[in-house]
Amino acid sequence: MAKVFGAAVKRREDPRLIRGKGRYTDDIRLPGMLYAAILRSPYAHARIRKIDAEQAKKLPGVVAVFTGADLEGKVGPIPTAWLPPDSDMKTPAHPALAKEKVRYVGDGVALVVAEDRYIARDALDLIQVDYEVLPTVVDAEKAMEEGAPLLHDDVPKNVAFHWQAGNDPAPAFHEAEVVIRQSFRQQRLIPNAMEPRAAVAQYNSGSGEMTLYITSQNPHIHRVLLSNILGIPEHKLRIVAVDVGGGFGSKIACYPDEALVAFAARELGRPVKWSEGRSENFQATTHGRDGIIHAELAAKKDGTILGLRLRMVANMGAYLSTAGPGVPTILFGLITPGPYTIPQVHVETYGVLTNTTPIDAYRGAGRPEATYVIERLVDLLAMELGMDPVEVRKKNFIPADAFPYHTATGLEYDSGNYQGALEKALKMLDYEGWRKKQEEARKEGRYIGIGWSTYVEICGLGPSQVAGAVGFQGGLYESATVRFHPTGKVTVFTGTSPHGQGEETTFAQVVADRFGIPVEDVEVVHGDTDRIAMGWGTYGSRTTPVGGSAIAVAAERVLEKATKIAAHMLEVAEEDVEFEGGVFHVKGMPDKQAKIQDVVLQAYLAWNLPQGLEPGLEAQSFYDPVNFTYPFGAHACVTEVDGETGEIKILKYVAVDDCGPIINPMIVEGQVHGGVVQGIGQALYEEAVYDENGQLLTGTFQDYAMPKARFFPMFDTDHTVTPAPHNPLGVKGVGETGTIASTPAVVNSVVDALRPFGVKDLEMPLKPEKIWRILSGGKKS
Questions:
Q1: What does the alpha-carbon distance between residue 279 and residue 250 come to, in Å, rounded to a whole number?
Q2: Helix 503-515 crosses helix 549-570 at what angle (to 10 degrees)?
Q3: Phi then psi dihedrals of residue 388, to 5 deg
Q4: Does residue 368 fall inside a structural domain?
Q5: Mean pLDDT, the chain, as a whole number?
Q6: pLDDT in tens, 463-520
Q7: Where in the sequence is the domain holding 535, given as residue range(s)?
Q8: Is the pTM of this model over 0.90?
Q9: Which of 349, 601, 613, 712 is the most buried (most CB within 10 A)?
């Protein structure tokens, strides 16, 4: 049988999804179901004087209207689940419905439940709320100033935390022959998954059991948190994530809306559904990024980097979201040295509350911000010294023979060959050829730029002990059960919760390859807390390194038991049995064999089992990795800037990524393509903008620019393979690589194109108007 690990197997999920046969949360219809709608604040900061819902309650079809007062003693505050240690953390209470004050446009004020969704939404217009509008602050640095509007009385100066990592960089700056200083703004982004959020709750008053269907990236985390919020014992709360139409981090968080739906179902004794509209999604679903990073880089004149000092002011929004505090601290700060040997690094982050939508993970989550800073600094250093940016990178790379490598921020990079990835990308791009074309173009008055990004990321979010040490309020192991059925078919139960990544295919490939059976004979089950023992979800490119490894370990345990049965059937010692391609055979006697399907059947018939061996054939694994994984790569972008309009065109894009052994190259390529597009979206198009009153000015797709396929050339992708040494598959994760690498590659390229105008840095997004003003007002050198 052909090997399926490494084969470009078509995604098994796609036929049902592209034919409209998927089952999303909004597709769920239950007998007697009611529909909920949430009244949201039109003000970014206001005191609630009075809520009058009488007219709404009288509307035919309205079943109930709830306000914050109705939740007292029944729905607890929404918790924060990542509390970085030694950071003077202040976590203000986050009520499911605002009681005394609203703190951002979109903050929930009242819940309407009606016989259909249209009546529910009409009823919102009949609720009268008397607001006393308060001063607003949307800029994180201004929010820290004396006299700034205070969001929460228990958070002085709006600073929720102050976190630090690394060592003392003072000696490096004392020794430095050149110092680069630059501030970088990471603009706020809106995740915009294809499917907005939704929830359906069904309560059984007889048993006290609640079933809650949620658009979730981590159903078991939702169960733990909602159990505490709602006061429902965990064993009586079932969370189900059916097909989920993307998340990009925005479906990690536990939101007030999900708790409200469950509360209403319990109060009213009928199922309740809530589905978010797109405009509501812009306002109420977590945003990403948003921070100012003040950076200093110390170096020698030969390009050797000595030290790095970073100060980040992170806008956290009005409340601390579920994983929000971990993003600008652990996920950002620890990876800031990138792939370079920087002996002295210090990072500090201020987490600041503002009158804006809460911030949480968005594809890459902290790693894109870190990579952007170091990659821009390397280019600025090369510019200052008159060196080729590629040579500066090569000079400072961690050597391939230095792994495992301990960074100044406390990480242990597991494996890497950064030089190899860069060399491959140089050849694919024809770097020297493009430099010649650039020179020729400049003579013709055309502006071509070449930009690089060499990155390493922290992925495979794992070791539970480390998770506890960095303040994550949970474990980061993963569970798996691999079960053979008597007919030889296999069901895999995974605690991860894929939502577009393709693991229904890749996990089946892992199991099918190990057992030598067709991929079609393997079913992958996920997203249901009643069917799966435990799981910590899908984010941080952890699904395959951690969840896949759990499956590999469980499959190996199944095979160990099957080998005992096969040896008994073949009447030989266990050590004399070999397994290959779905067949057990005796060493040196290939004709004396038993197919795995025959062994499986015997395991269930139990007619002829070894003494003391139990019937059945399945195994469970709780896999806790010993380290993170560290994918890496080199990306290059060639752009041309239109001298008359400022429009930027991408001429060529090359990506060489190393995610370890590749299970399915087609899926990996798709992940890279999607990630690159999202990263370019940040560089060139996307930006969430608030006015001084906290009103979101980019609250529709008319105002918030999303990248389109026609904006891009074909991407040239390839890979190197450097296995992770500590997990059974050697895999590292690939879901976020493109997003992490592409943003600085594009900006570096455009800055390179505009060097004749004296441009050293540009603030994202690089919109044509911004570039046109530089071209119109700048003097060409």
A1: 15
A2: 30
A3: -70, 130
A4: yes
A5: 97
A6: 999 999 999 999 999 999 999 999 999 999 999 999 999 999 999 999 999 999 999 9
A7: 477-623
A8: yes
A9: 349
